[in-house]
Amino acid sequence: MARRQCSTAGVAVTAAVLAVLAVLCSGHPVPGGFVPLQPHFYDHTCPQLQSIAHAEDPRMAASLLRLHFHDCFVQGCDASVLLDADGSGRFVTEKRSNPNKDSLRGYEVIDEIKAAVEHACPHVVSCADIVAVAARDSVVLTGGPGWEVPLGRRDSLTASLSGSNNLIPAPNDTLPTIIGKFANQGLDVVDLVALSGGHTIGDSRCVSFRQRLYGQNNNGQVDRTLNPAYAAELRGRCPRSGGDQNLFALDPASQFRFDNHYYHNILAMNGLLSSDEILLTQGRETMELVHRFAANQGLFFEQFAKSMVKMGNITPLTGHAGEIRKNCRRVNHF
């Protein structure tokens, strides 16, 4: 796939979502059971759609990529992360979980895309597939690699607050814990280091890395794996208390450009999150991969694309499982 370059940082990012749409090779849905995802799943049922959602926000590309990640790690890639509470008490929205509350963004963009999709092809395209395609196009539009997105996911009827709290890797998790959380999803160490490279775009909140500046027990000790000069700079806007929501670029050198500079930051001890820097300091295999991806951006792009396809295939609902939501925020009967 040819790469498209984005505009410079600070210019509005256009999240162009090409929902290339289809049925299976036979042209008919397979009754029941698991149906493999396919890039051309909607070719016959909605071939003309080219929905474009404009986000006047240069941070939105990273937000849509993260939205896909947080969706797939809980119940699989089923758009459960988009659901609001259903009013019946059957489940609590994942939007209230620790990883998502006051942090996860992009719901309105997905809503806008879904509205355009429903206008063109009513009740055909799942919200889960929209999230997957939006993540891919966000990477491409910020200068990163493209990949063919397998399609055919269906949407869940439930959400899991506990799953969101416990299954998504946290900024302060140890490397063995993060490796375990990835392994639970069928993702290996190579996938872990490659997908972490998504931190080449986007921001993090002060609350997510404060302990690196002031110590786990707030004793004022800077994390020894953090560049002291960088720590001093960060302390200027991330105080010992307060300022929890203050935002910091994960990759200050190229905040809105998808490249391999994230790995150069780690090698310079400028990884913002503990979960970034431990890739270098806590494991030989992860350390070697950091060096390899820092030295070869093409290699990183190739592996990132492969790992995104692999992540996007985590236990999808297919066939007659789940549903195709009309509104991404609620199940059809609510």
UniProtKB/TrEMBL annotation:
A single MF term (Gene Ontology): heme binding
- Residues the entry annotates as binding heme b: H199
Site location (Transition state stabilizer): R66
Q: Where does Ca(2+) 1 bind?
A: D71, V74, G76, D78, S80, E94
- The active site is formed by H70 (proton acceptor)
Which PANTHER family does the entry mention? Answer: PEROXIDASE, PEROXIDASE 72-RELATED
Which InterPro entries does this chain map to?
Haem_peroxidase, Haem_peroxidase_sf, Peroxidase_pln, Peroxidases_AS, Peroxidases_heam-ligand_BS, Secretory_peroxidase
Q: Which CDD domains match?
A: secretory_peroxidase
| Family as reported in the entry's similarity comment | Belongs to the peroxidase family. Ascorbate peroxidase subfamily. Belongs to the peroxidase family. Classical plant (class III) peroxidase subfamily.
Q: Where in the cell is it found?
A: Secreted
Q: What is this protein called?
A: Peroxidase
Q: Which cofactor does it need?
A: Ca(2+); heme b
Specify the signal sequence span. 1-27
Positions with a binding annotation for Ca(2+) 2? T200, D251, D259
Which organism's genome codes for this protein? Digitaria exilis
Q: Which cysteines are joined by disulfide bonds?
A: C46-C121, C72-C77, C127-C328, C206-C238
